[in-house]
Design brief:
This protein is an all-alpha fold. It contains two helices and no strands. The longest helix has 30 residues, at 23-52. This is Gas vesicle protein K.
């Protein structure tokens, strides 16, 4: 069985690579996956609040800017760790994919 190296691309199987040599990459993939999941949840909640009329125009603008800034930072981090959007959709086995 061949071991992966630190320079190897992240697993395209939807599973997190946790081998000792690629631990940094696997950890980055896991952390960014959790952040992306939370970002999507916050975005959905924000849309519900906007649709429900419970936010002022200023709050809507601030929320929109915050979500855009978070998306930009996520793109930067994915580039740094050489991850694609599909790399963050990890396979949870019998539960299916996370995102």
């Amino acid at each position: 069985m061949q071991q992966s190296t630190l320079n190897e691309q992240p697993s395209k199987s939807g599973r997190i690579n946790l081998d000792p040599e690629g631990a940094e990459q696997g950890l980055a993939q896991l952390v960014l996956t959790v952040i992306e999941l939370l970002r999507q949840l916050v975005e959905r909640q924000a849309l519900r609040r906007v649709d429900g009329g419970t936010l002022s125009e200023e709050e809507i603008e601030q929320l929109g800017l915050a979500l855009m800034n978070l998306e930009v930072k996520m793109d930067e981090l994915k580039e740094i760790f050489e991850l694609e959007e599909e790399d963050l959709n990890i396979d949870l086995g019998p539960l299916g994919n996370l995102l």
